[in-house]
Specification:
Elements lengths: L3 E7 L8 E7 L6 E10 L2 H7 L16 E8 L11 E4 L2 E3 L5 H4 L13 E2 L18 E5 L4 E2 L6 H4 L5 H11 L7 E5 L3 H13 L2 E6 L5 H7 L3 E4 L3 H6 L4 E6 L7 H5 L2 E9 L11 H4 L5 E4 L5 H13 L6 E4 L4 H9 L6 E5 L4
Parallel strand pairs: 10-11, 10-13, 11-12, 13-14, 14-15, 16-17
Antiparallel strand pairs: 1-2, 3-4, 3-8, 3-17, 4-5, 5-9, 6-7
Helix pairs in contact: 4-5, 4-10
The chain binds NADP nicotinamide-adenine-dinucleotide phosphate and zinc ion (2 copies).
NADP nicotinamide-adenine-dinucleotide phosphate binds next to α1 and α5.
EC number: 1.1.1.2
GO molecular function: alcohol dehydrogenase (NADP+) activity; zinc ion binding
Family: Belongs to the zinc-containing alcohol dehydrogenase family.
């Protein structure tokens, strides 16, 4: 069987608006499943990549790594999924499967040549460009798909595949739970998932947002405290307060000011991926034995664990469902921090 051609929204060149097009999807291999995409979330990483913030990518670029849909066809050797199963795909569609990290289930940190195979703006095992979720269908190896549990609707499940796991993984790694004083910087797509998940884990959650405009939402989502970072008094009041700070902001921040909010042995985890470097003063870390770390999405096993956890706790994303023709407008709004709290594309409009 040869490849199939499907509809998609693509950016033809760096910073160019997305427009409707067609793309190839590979013929189903033995362990592949064909997914009919129902919903695709818009992550700020999609915007960074379309805009070439992280270096010039591969165009045409079909973004989308928060994919939720239904299995429409299975390869002859598929054992994990059957027709009609509710499935998701996140940020990667394959990895070397042999390195230490892949074997440990940390495929996102694959050290094989080229690292993990990104869902888009990357190349697949066959060497062909990969195209993401702003599309009607995707073909993926069954080992890199996730099962979306009954009890979470597919539209609110889609953002869990990146935003959800990206916050769940550091919360799990740094053992956030009862007694943890946690701050999340930025109440956007990632931040709001972090608030929900951290609250369900039992942590004491503080949101650090630019203003108090989303305070009611933050408290409703599970935050215990909410502060405006535009108010200098916030930094005086919260000095030395937190065990763990997760920075989800897509722009540069004064990291030294936020490091001053950590208590002794506290950790600030950089999650947001702004284009430019940020300065860290040695003495923002030295007194208090503080750590500055990073974290990237999560592995397949942990992503499944996160989905099951979210289903068990009734957690989905807060979404604004849009038609494909509204993608460019949604990009504008995300860049203005005008998102409550994730745009999700209805793939039936592609
Ligand atoms: P988002 O929905 O745009 O949320 C980012 C939030 O950051 C905004 O809602 C805003 O929150 C705050 N913010 C934006 N500009 C700011 C500025 N100039 N100063 C201070 N705060 C600002 O984006 P997202 O989809 O959550 O993604 C956030 C970042 O994480 C992006 O850089 C993305 O590429 C990155 N990311 C990383 C990973 C990973 O694995 N590490 C995975 C996914 C995404 P307030 O309005 O509350 O201030
Ligand atoms: Zn993402
Ligand atoms: Zn590997």
């Amino acid at each position: 069987m040869t490849h199939t051609t499907v509809a998609a929204y693509a950016s033809p060149a760096p910073k160019a608006p997305l427009a409707k097009t067609t793309i190839p999807r590979r013929a189903l291999g033995e362990h592949d499943i064909l997914i009919e995409i129902k919903f695709a979330g818009i992550c700020h990483s999609d915007i960074h990549q379309v805009n070439a913030d992280w270096g010039v990518g591969t165009y045409p670029m079909v973004p989308g790594h928060e994919i939720a849909g239904v299995v429409a066809e299975v390869g002859s050797g598929v054992s994990k999924y059957a027709l009609g199963d509710r499935v998701g795909v996140g940020c990667f569609v394959d990895s070397c499967r042999e390195c230490e990290n892949c074997k440990a289930g940390d495929e996102q940190y694959c050290t094989g040549a080229g690292g993990m195979y990104g869902t888009y703006n990357s190349r697949g095992r066959d060497g062909e460009p990969t195209y993401g979720g702003y599309s009607t269908h995707i073909v993926v190896d069954e080992n890199y798909a996730l099962r979306i549990p009954e009890g979470i609707e597919l539209d609110v499940a889609a953002p869990l595949l990146c935003a959800g796991i990206t916050l769940y993984s550091p919360l799990a790694h740094w053992n956030a739970g009862p007694g943890t004083k946690l701050a999340i910087i930025g109440l956007g797509g990632l931040g709001h998932m972090g608030v929900k998940i951290a609250h369900a884990l039992g942590a004491e959650v503080t949101v650090l947002s630019q203003t108090l405009s989303k305070r009611e939402d933050g408290l409703r989502l599970g935050a215990d405290h909410y502060y405006a970072t535009s108010d200098p008094a916030t930094f005086e009041e919260l000095a030395g307060r937190f065990d763990l700070i997760l920075n989800t902001v897509s722009a540069n921040l004064d990291l030294n000011a936020y490091l001053s909010l950590l208590r002794t042995d506290g950790t600030l985890v950089q999650i947001g991926g702004p284009e430019h470097p940020m300065e860290v003063a040695p003495f923002a870390l030295i007194p208090g034995r503080k750590s500055l770390s990073g974290s990237m999405i999560g592995g397949i096993r942990e992503t499944q664990e996160m989905l099951d956890f979210c289903a068990q706790h009734g957690i989905g994303s807060e979404i604004e469902l849009i038609e494909a023709t509204q993608i460019n407008e949604a990009y504008e709004r995300v860049q203005k921090s005008d998102v409550r709290y994730r745009f999700v594309i209805d793939a039936s409009t592609i």
